[in-house]
Amino acid sequence: xxxxxxxxxxxxxxxxxxxxxxxxxxxxxxxxxxxxxxxxxxxxxxxxxxxxxxxxxxxxxxxxxxxxxxxxxxxxxxxxxxxxxxxxxxxxxxxxxxxxxxxxxxxxxxxxxxxxxxxxxxxxxxxxxxxxxxxxxxxxxxxxxxxxxxxxxxxxxxxxxxxxxxxxxxxxxxxxxxxxxxxxxxxxxxxxxxxxxxxxxxxxxxxxxxxxxxxxxxxxxxxxxxxxxxxxxxxxxxxxxxxxxxxxxxxxxxxxxxxxxxxxxxxxxxxxxxxxxxxxxxxxxxxxxxxxxxxx
Amino acid sequence: xxxxxxxxxxxxxxxxxxxxxxxxxxxxxxxxxxxxxxxxxxxxxxxxxxxxxxxxxxxxxxxxxxxxxxxxxxxxxxxxxxxxxxxxxxxxxxxxxxxxxxxxxxxxxxxxxxxxxxxxxxxxxxxxxxxxxxxxxxxxxxxxxxxxxxxxxxxxxxxxxxxxxxxxxxxxxxxxxxxxxxxxxxxxxxxxxxxxxxxxxxxxxxxxxxxxxxxxxxxxxxxxxxxxxxxxxxxxxxxxxxxxxxxxxxxxxxxxxxxxxxxxxxxxxxxxxxxxxxxxxxxxxxxxxxxxxxxxxxxxxxxxxxxxxxxxxxxxxxxxxxxxxxxxxxxxxxxxxxxxxxxxxxxxxxxxxxxxxxxxxxxxxxxxxxxxxxxxxxxxxxxxxxxxxxxxxxxxxxxxxxxxxxxxxxxxxxxxxxxxxxxxxxxxxxxxxxxxxxxxxxxxxxxxxxxxxxxxxxxxxxxxxxxxxxxxxxxxxxxxxxxxxxxxxxxxxxxxxxxxxxxxxxxxxxxxxxxxxxxxxxxxxxxxxxxxxxxxxxxxxxxxxxxxxxxxxxx
Lengths: 296, 555
What we know:
The complex is a heterodimer of chains A (296) and B (555). Chain A is α+β, with helices and mostly antiparallel strands. Chain A has 3 domains: 3-147, Cytochrome c-like domain (Cytochrome Bc1 Complex, Chain D, domain 2), CATH 1.10.760.10; 158-212 and 272-293; 219-268, SH3 type barrels, CATH 2.30.30. Chain A is 37% helix and 10% strand. Chain A is built from 11 helices and 5 strands, in the order H-H-H-H-H-H-H-H-H-E-E-E-E-E-H-H. Chain A has a 5-stranded antiparallel beta sheet with strand order 4-3-2-1-5, with no helix packed on it. In chain A, helix 2 (59-72) crosses helix 6 (125-143) and helix 7 (158-166) packs across helix 11. Chain A is elongated and about 90 Å long. Chain A starts with a helix and ends with a helix. The model of chain A is unreliable at 1-47 and 203-210 (pLDDT under 50). With 555 residues, chain B is mainly beta. Chain B has a single domain (2-552), classed as Quinoprotein alcohol dehydrogenase-like superfamily (Methanol Dehydrogenase, Chain A), CATH 2.140.10.10. Helices cover 4% and strands 38% of the residues of chain B. The two termini of chain B are 44 Å apart. Chains A and B meet through helix 4, helix 6, helix 9 and helix 11 of A and strand 28, strand 29 and strand 34 of B.
């Protein structure tokens, strides 16, 4: 949910809150579809946060639940369920977290917590189930960081970005906006584009898929034997004990390394990108992103 | 006087223990490991230094493979089955997904010829001479993040380990049969537990983890016979007015402030203090809603081991906003500092700094950067704490930070060699962009998305504990390999054992970093290597992926 929707929801809650209290009823449920079946999916283990078995919640139930919640509960608990006028944050409530499909939330809604100032709400089982589904969806959204949506990152000054491209960043020593970067702003979304100039090689780690490496970005190596014979090509592997390459002709060669023998010279065409990581300011990064986005 | 009393109590306890074939003699916990590896770090100090010398610089080239044990996790045919969860589905309970398969991150225990180790939901006993499986225990899980398990603790004949769904499980070491299990945290609040329990006296000390839903961290001690809780220490103050509460805006933030206890701590028997590093505050990657230093998150703390009461603390990352736990092993060093012998404590911390403290009182002695790429701090304050640069706190449009949230170092255990005076750790010189995704005044969970922005690779470092300066380093040539996640072992044979990021186990000269021996395995070394003597023969055992490898010298 966007920030704007949350603010709108909060205003709506302030308006509807009193009405709902009086009426004791939720909005019409004519659009009700198949009931949600929370808690039935296989546990999701790890991967972007969240070890609890979060099912795929029925989005119609989430929306219905949200409407009932905003109308009946939002005034005290906030339209986003994170606490409001007197009511606690329900997304961090142990009762809610321990609930699966309304079995723990239901009694609190139906009986209230009179000692803490919460009245009874005579809701149906369907309404309780919908509210529970809404709350669990919100908790899932917080817990699964792999699903977090990155907001607008195009905040920089494209003109300053262009100046950086041609100036301090020295991007123009290898790249051209009318050559290799032509149309790059249309090819990638801004987050991907930013990742491409920070580190063009591979995926972006941590939840990002790895991409095959282009030949242009491949690391080159020259291995020179004590005899003087030398082999050059694309680096396949290097560690302290082995270096392996594939020549332009497609031949694979592997060599045992013993200290400095054989001589190994590595050329990484992306070295300049690595070197820049210690030089960018936030403004450089944001301006350059804003500029590259304009290369449609 | 104090030591005499300690020795007496040890002798008293040791006598009956010696009657059993497999039971752990608790006296072994108080001496450097030789004929056993009886606790996570080999002994209480966290040094991971063995006095053994049979394998040494002159013969390490002749190390030979003694055996390989490949762990088959899940509900295998012969497994002893326990647990509160449902029957596992296809795959027999071996987790799929990013943390799937079996990776041995545990440091095995070796007691009376038997190795004991665990992975999430699984525990094994393996003959330390032959690599033959004696039993396998499988725990049916209710969930929880299955990212790793650091191993087991042992008391007499009893074994203890923690599960991803937050149970402390006790097994009979002789049979693998379960004695009892107790729940220590709520999996539905996204707690998950990975630490190896540490046994001190009759305390089974356990911690937990979980960053996804803003829950408070704690450390607790349990009775080894019954599982009953003895004490519980919360990593945050519980209410306004309590010590430390001045570092939080309100009770709401401190009750949801994180600070997990997910790496086993260390112990000084003379001071009677248990040391542990605490995890990052929550929400994880923004400081909004929790203005202040956020005690006692990202801190090294000393607790009275009998009461769990806080004796002193030192916060290595005030108000952390990058997921940089200070949970890394607090290594206890007895050494000279400024011309006199001191009881010291060193930590290579995830935030990219090395710290040296006086462990009697927490006095700060040294702070030094671990990695060259570190870019998030504006220097140190008068207490030696890094001053966070506000320009490096996550924003909607992103900030470029080194190290990445995984840190300059992480859980893999470091080692301190008293003969070289050097502290050994693998580091990562990584960058990430942190994008704020939750702009609410009370953000939740991580509150930011992270995207890797590249890395300068991984480096093995030997650090002078007196200055924090890197004396020698070895940069791994393999830039493609994510890694640097291997633990360390040093021995009096003048050897340093660890793994690189290209599936090798290596022996270095700890004085200068010269490579003396290596062996290619089928995965990167995934735990801290151990060593022990059996029948007059020294073994080196290391976990790599789903297998344990044992090396020895031909007699």
